[in-house]
Structures are given as structure tokens and as C-alpha cells.
């Protein structure tokens, strides 16, 4: 039996029950929730779901299923299961005074060294001296150029007056 893959994104102001309402529509229409991420950003709630179905729905058919859900929604259909790239995982944290360009400088350096960002979060502290915090998880194909890209990233962080910490993430099989 064929499986069909879809990515669904929802964005709206935060409200109680939005996850329950959205996943009820998925359940009632036979979707399997394969992966998800949700977050609240300054009062705006967003959800991204990777779902599968045995039925070959069009993007519009899926949007119509959610017509009673008060959210901005997008649907992306995949021809095959999206590939999950393997590699070495690293956790990167960046701290500094809040200013424009921190995310761009760090992510451009990562891109120049062919590192794949799989998670990125930013926050600004509520203290009197605003501190910008960026947390990333990245994947390198291997450890061959580890010292090269890490030194470059440390130089970039210094150039934009931020502090950076890089740690290799160890995974253990259960």
C-alpha cells in the first residue's frame, strides 16, 4: 500500500485547544502524525506537522478539511518520504547584546561550511540589559573538518561581539 507524505503548517494567535482541534481533524481523516514541532513566539502560536496518509489527497482537499480551524495554513505534498540526513550532531549556543545581524552572520558561516541546521531558536532576555540568545542544533556530514568550521564560527562570533559554545551531541541507543 502506498503512503503519501505531507507537511502542514499552521500559524495563529495563541488560543486554548488549537492543538486538540487540529489533531482531531487529522485523526478523523485518517492521517498519521509522524513528526511535529510547535512553539509560541511572542503570542503567535505555530505548528508544523509531518503526516502520512494511505489516501492521495490534493493540497486543496487537505486545506478544505481545516476550513473551520482559525489559522493560516499551508500544505506541502511530497512525492516520496523526505530524506533524513545522517551525520554528526552539534549543539551551538550564541549569546550577546541584542542587535541586528547575529542570526545571519552565524548561519551564513554554517552554510559556508556545509553544516545543516535542524533546529534554531532565539530569545531575548527580559532583563534591563537585553541579551540575545540563539540555540542551534546542526549536523555535519562527518568530523573531518570539525576544527576548521569551529574556528571559523568562533571568529565570526568574535567579529559580531558575541560568545559562542559548541558541543558535540552524543547519542546512545537503548
UniProtKB/TrEMBL annotation:
SUPFAM superfamilies xrefs: ACT-like (SSF55021)
InterPro entries the record matches: ACT-like_dom_sf (IPR045865), ACT_dom (IPR002912), UPF0237/GcvR_regulator (IPR050990)
Stretches assigned to the ACT domain: 7-87, 91-167
Pfam families: ACT
PROSITE patterns, A to Z: ACT (PS51671)
Descriptive protein name: ACT domain-containing protein
